[in-house]
Amino acid sequence: MTQQKQQQRKEYMKVYQKAYYPKHKELYKKRSKEYRIRIRYEVLSLYSGGKPKCNTCGEERMACLSFDHINGGGASHRRQIGLHASTTYYNWLKDNYNPKEFQVLCMNCQFIKRKENKEYRRTGNTNWR
Length: 129
Known about the structure:
By secondary structure, the chain is mainly α. It has one domain (3-116). 57% of the residues lie in helices and 8% in strands. It has helices at residues 3-23, 25-48, 74-81, 86-95, 107-116; strands spanning 65-69, 102-106. The mean pLDDT is 88.
């Protein structure tokens, strides 16, 4: 396909999507939600080495699990690479698989780790109880 044809196709799809989306909004929402759930499960499984679970305590409930930067600095790392939406972040984690930098933790273990390693937010507050 020539570059001109590709550009024409791109413009056509832009117009088509603009007309199609409002008529099928609920279908788009449903598919997007299903995709987010599927990609999250896939990446949690990848970093857990099988079934998704917390690396520290073994918690398996999906709602409790999250990704943790082993050496801290997660927020600044996401800003640095320009990832804010969960789906794009999951895809980035999948494409840049690095078990030495990332791990799966439940939120309880993640907060305990933050407290023990003094990984505080920007405020620098060190008076956590």
